[in-house]
Write a structure and sequence with these properties.
Number of helices: 2
Shape: flat
Number of strands: 0
Radius of gyration: 15 Å
Order of helices and strands: HH
Helix content: over 70%
Length: about 45
């Protein structure tokens, strides 16, 4: 595997973890997850 590809893949995993963490914090602070906010906005 190319080194650049490995680095991008790891960054993607890290970004995913960060988004999951932010979503959990949001849910604790505001009582709604990002998915619920999106659904509410779209409806």
């Amino acid at each position: 595997m190319d080194d650049n590809l490995k680095m991008n893949y790891n960054e993607t995993d890290e970004d995913k973890s960060q988004k999951e963490f932010e979503s959990k914090v949001d849910k604790i602070l505001h009582g709604t997850s990002n998915d619920q906010k999106i659904k509410k906005t779209l409806s």
